[in-house]
């Protein structure tokens, strides 16, 4: 097996450039590919994503990670694009994922079109992955990590105050930056609510799906994994609860090495993709 190499690519996204990393060996021949979708305040170089992508590439997959155009994060990993973060929506994230998949499956990311494609989505990116997988026949396998089960996550009172102020302040726990988030995401949900219904989309996911969640997740409760698993109702959907794991399975940024929880999640995810792609 060829030693994996890393290439970087730029695609036009919904709110600006989408920066894409591709790790793969044997780029001239088709091989299965896995696209990793980061979550809210996440980015392609956060903590566990690069080592996981390297693990996928070493296992023979083409591993694709990217910064969504509304992430607010530049190619170096800095939150230097707050105006994009302020305008981010679920619709923009879905459009960016479609753009990445289109480029991947047509050979536009420096590799042969893949033999099959799987999605791995974390947190809000897990919800986006479910929404996309429900309607894209190119996706042959799905794994969600700590995924949200619903997109409308704010009370009526919170949304009223948000609209009155014109924005809500989001604190980045890692950098301590205060990032204003505008009302575009609320507008998107009001206009496209049924299209953003993750639980309803879960019932339409027809491919093998591994639902992974930590029982000690204080960002997205493990009950949301149970909701997704129940909504799927298929024998090909499996629920994996990691006892005592938090939202990022014990990892930290900058990366300080694997944890037992991360190893279990990575092992099970790679095995799932190897079985179903």
Can you describe this structure?
With 277 residues, this protein is of the alpha/beta class. It has one domain (5-152, 194-276): Alpha/Beta hydrolase fold, catalytic domain (Rossmann fold, 3-Layer(aba) Sandwich), CATH 3.40.50. It is built from nine helices and ten strands. The strands form two sheets. It has an eight-stranded mixed beta sheet with strand order 1-2-4-3-5-6-9-10, with helices on both faces. Strands 7-8 form a two-stranded antiparallel sheet. Helix 4 (124-133) links the parallel strand 5 and strand 6. Helix 3 (90-105) crosses helix 4. The longest helix has 17 residues, at 260-276. The radius of gyration is 18 Å and the shape is globular. The model has no long low-confidence stretch (mean pLDDT 97).
């Amino acid at each position: 097996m060829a030693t994996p190499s890393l290439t970087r690519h730029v695609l036009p996204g919904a709110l600006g450039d989408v920066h894409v990393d591709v790790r793969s060996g044997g780029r001239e021949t088709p091989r299965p590919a896995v696209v990793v979708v980061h979550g809210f305040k996440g980015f392609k170089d956060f903590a566990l994503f690069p080592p996981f992508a390297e693990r996928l590439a070493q296992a023979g997959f083409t591993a694709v990670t990217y910064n969504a155009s509304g992430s607010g994060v530049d190619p170096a990993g800095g939150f230097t694009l707050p105006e994009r973060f302020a305008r981010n929506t679920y619709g923009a994230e879905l459009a960016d994922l479609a753009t990445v998949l289109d480029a991947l499956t047509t050979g536009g990311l420096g590799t042969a079109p893949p033999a099959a494609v799987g999605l791995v989505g974390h947190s809000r990116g897990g919800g986006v992955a479910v929404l996309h997988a429900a309607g894209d026949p190119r996706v042959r396998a799905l794994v969600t990590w700590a995924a949200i089960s619903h997109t409308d996550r704010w009370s009526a009172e919170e949304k009223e105050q948000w609209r009155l102020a014109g924005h809500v302040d989001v604190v980045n726990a890692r950098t301590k930056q205060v990032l204003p988030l505008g009302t575009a995401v609320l507008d998107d949900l009001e206009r496209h609510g049924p299209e953003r219904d993750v639980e309803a989309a879960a019932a339409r996911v027809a491919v093998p799906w591994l639902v992974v969640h930590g029982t000690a997740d204080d960002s997205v409760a493990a009950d949301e994994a149970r909701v997704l698993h129940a909504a799927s109702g298929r024998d090909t959907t499996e629920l994996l609860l990691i006892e005592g794991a938090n939202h990022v399975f014990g990892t930290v940024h900058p990366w300080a090495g694997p944890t037992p929880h991360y190893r279990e999640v990575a092992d099970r995810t790679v095995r799932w993709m190897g079985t179903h792609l």
